[in-house]
Amino acid sequence: MGYKALMLCWSDGRTQFILDFSLHGEKGKIGGKEQRLTSEQSNGRYERKRDEKCHIAKRKEEYFMSKGVKLLDMVKKAIRNKSPNLRLRRK
């Protein structure tokens, strides 16, 4: 399976802070099929029923979301939450 991590970071040149992240999967190259486990492997995995509003459900929803769209969401969220690392400094 192929995974990609998208991280929104802030750096002052010496230190770096991760403000947000998301994991993304890619569609398979054979007939556009999703990259996944075989049906036998998938049936053998543990799975728990979860509330649709929990954080894990939100992360599952963004798994195949476009990375460009998710990046814009991350920046908007950081600005909306008034992240102290994003304040502009006057010299």
Descriptive account of the structure:
- There is one protein chain.
- The chain is of the alpha+beta class and 91 residues long.
- It has three helices and two strands, in the order E-E-H-H-H.
- A two-stranded antiparallel sheet has the order 1-2.
- The longest helix has 14 residues.
- The model has no long low-confidence stretch (mean pLDDT 78).
Distance between termini? 48 Å
Total number of beta strands? 2
CA radius of gyration is 17 Å
- SSE pattern: EEHHH
Low-confidence stretches: none
Main sheet: strand order: 1-2
Helix fraction, binned, reads: 25-40%
Q: Average pLDDT across residues?
A: 78
- As a percent range, the share of strand residues is 15-25%
The quaternary state of the protein chains shown equals: single chain
**Individual helix count:** 3
Given helix and strand content, the structural type is alpha+beta
Overall form: elongated
**Biggest pleated-sheet summary:** 2 strands, antiparallel
